[in-house]
Amino acid sequence: MKAKFSLTALMFISTICYSQVKDSTSVKTMAYIAEKFPITRVLNIEYDHLTPYTFTSKLREQEIPEAKVRDFYKARMSANINLIKRPKWVLGTNLNYRYLSIKTYTKDPAENIDFGSREDYHYHSESLNLTYFSKLFGKMMIYTGSISVDGSERHFERLRGIATATMVLRADARTKMTVGLLVAIDPTVQTPVIPAFTYEHKFSHGLIADVILPKSVYLRKKITENSRLSVGSELDVTSFYLYNIDPANRKYEFRQIEINSGLMYEHYLGNSFVATFKGGAKSMMRSRVFEKSASYGSYVFQAKPEAAFYVNVGLSFDPFIKKTAER
Fold first, then answer.
1. 118, 133, 142, 276: which could form a disulfide with 166 (CB 3.0–4.6 Å)?
2. What is the pTM of this model?
3. What are the residue ranges of helices labelled H in the chain?
């Protein structure tokens, strides 16, 4: 969510760069390869698995015995669709669905009892996004406004708003750079205004530095005409809603901030399909449960998980890849 406007900016800049250097064979080749692996894709399906890990926790400042997550599976699907495209603006929608299955194991030292549980969670979000292109001080500006709603299999839960402004500082054959601000209209967010910065630079021999702050930092290397390998880190969030966990039957949200560090391999399969494999270490910075009407800082439960190893496999479809390749 925090990097949404940065992703929009990079996609737009890539289009500008490609048209500016259409007579250069070498740059056309690099643009063609880059377009095989766009940042956002029309349809994307992923599956995650984590190795077992332990965590300590507190419930309303009371220590809870150490517990262990034995199984953690996550499946997610997303779709990014442009509904209306005009020279100055684009109206689109983003649809997301996540399914999580978590098996935990706890030992109560006082009662000398072991017990475990498996819980399944469903989370979805839908947004309507408007992007407008303009100029300021001779620089390209990209403004976006987004309204989103999320929830579970039971209810729609929260309505959010996001506004961004991005200035394109540089956009040539080798370097793309933007700076901007994101404003979140969401009572659960502790920092509603967030600065953002994107930087992409093409070195020789197919090496690319790709920075999208605060979302990700990657160093990418072209392996073949249809594949590339990346090393770096990216920010991720796991969240879902909880029901019937207290006598008052209040609604709660679980939110976990994560940093995934490791390798990513992407391979263009042809016919607009891209396969992705990721693996490495997952650092779970904060895991909190808070009332739906409260902020992330007013939590009732907090956990401190140990790091775990993760594996992610994905398949995406983007019909515009083929159109780019045929130009």
1. 142
2. 0.84
3. 4-20, 25-35, 320-325
Instruction: Give the dihedral of Cα atoms 92, 93, 94, 99; nearest 10 deg.
Output: -160
- Label residue 135 left, alpha or beta by phi (over 0 means left) and psi (-120 to 50 means alpha): beta
CA distances from 315 to 73, 267, 276 (A): 17, 10, 6
- pLDDT tens for each residue of 240-284: 999 998 888 899 999 999 999 999 999 999 889 999 999 999 999
Residue-wise DSSP of 78-108: EEEEEEEE-SSEEEEEEEEEEEEEEEEEEEE
Candidates 51, 39, 1; CA nearest to 312 is: 51
DSSP string, 223-287: EETTEEEEEEEEEEEEEEEE-S-STT---EEEEEEEEEEEEEEEEEEETTEEEEEEEEEEEEEEE
Which residues, 6 or more positions from 48, have their beta carbon under 8 angstroms from its beta carbon?
72, 73, 74, 75, 76, 310, 311, 312
- For residue range 170-229, list pLDDT tens digits in order: 999 899 999 999 999 988 888 899 999 999 999 988 899 999 998 999 999 999 989 999
Q: CA dist 263 to 71, 88, 139, 276, Å? A: 22, 37, 35, 11
**Helix count (H) and strand count (E) of the chain?**
3, 16
Strands 308-317 and 175-185: unpaired
Residue 273 neighbours by CB distance under 10 Å: 15
- Alpha-carbon span 199 to 188, nearest angstrom: 29
Using the Cα atoms of residue 225, residue 229, residue 234 and residue 238 in order, give the sign of their dihedral: positive
The token pair that represents 309 in the structure block: 């190893």
**Bridge partners of residue 203, in order along the sequence:** none
